Write the structure tokens for this entry.
Amino acid sequence: MRSMARITRFHLTALVASVLLVGQTAAQPGPAPHGGPPKAMLSLHSSVEAVVPGEPFDVGIRFQLVSGWHTYWHNSGDSGAPPRITWALPDGFTADDIQFPVPVRHVDA
């Protein structure tokens, strides 16, 4: 009877370890699916019509999203990630941190 308990405990431990290991690999994020119509259209807007050397200016990126889609704020909590922007700027230009508009709460039914 004692050896049967050891075998059962071994199998139970192996099963739990397998589920945990497989669960971890299955939960890894992957690339978004490709194909289909775009889910967002982005446009770049500037606070000035012409850039003047040495004068700061603002640019904004407008996200027009398909109904049912959304982005996350810079403090998205425990889910999602905010949009990230990588600028390719000419020499002498710098970019400050992204300023996000005040978020709007979305509730999924």
User: Anything to note?
Assistant: The mean pLDDT is 76. Residues 36 and 66 are 12 Å apart (CA to CA). Helices lie at 2-26.
